[in-house]
Amino acid sequence: MNDCLFCKIIAGEIPSKKVYEDELCYAFYDISPLAPTHFLVVPKLHLASAAEITPENAAVVGHIYAVIAKLAHELGFAEGFRVVTNCGEAAGQTVRHLHFHVLAGTTLGSFN
Ligand code: AMP
Ligand code: ZN
Fold it and tell me: Which runs of consecutive H residues, i.e. helices, occur in 1-112?
């Protein structure tokens, strides 16, 4: 995906503030944070959104959640955080590469 912002960030073509990286995923701080801690975790494989998750590629999602839990302990916010994935324009997705927002460090308002 040549034209994808997050593919370019993963490739190092656009700078980012890295939180974590392994062979399957890349995590970096959000450029417009909505909480004291706000980073994004993305699969290195380009998937446009959560609507493209299939039985064949779904393992990366479990991997990403395990990475998030590990980072939550290491960075000291395991007692309270939120993971959000916006899927599609109607849900507020602005970058068409699957990403998981991780928000922590403040009291997060109730969702429903
Ligand atoms: P969403 O609206 O769910 O698609 O989330 C996209 C997120 O990417 C937003 O929170 C943006 O602030 C963030 N973002 C956009 N460009 C960059 C960038 N160059 N580096 C880090 N975060 C970015
Ligand atoms: Zn991409």
Answer: 5-10, 59-75
- Separate counts of helices (H) and strands (E) for the chain: 2, 5
Task: Tell me if 42 sits within 8 A of 86, measured CB to CB.
Answer: no
22-80: per-residue pLDDT in tens? 999 999 999 999 999 999 999 999 999 999 999 999 999 999 999 999 999 999 999 99
- In the structure encoding, which two tokens stand for residue 54, read together? 């299939």
DSSP-derived secondary structure for 74-95:
HHT-TTSEEEE---SGGGT--S
Residues with CB under 6 A from ligand 1: 5, 14, 16, 28, 30-32, 86, 92-95
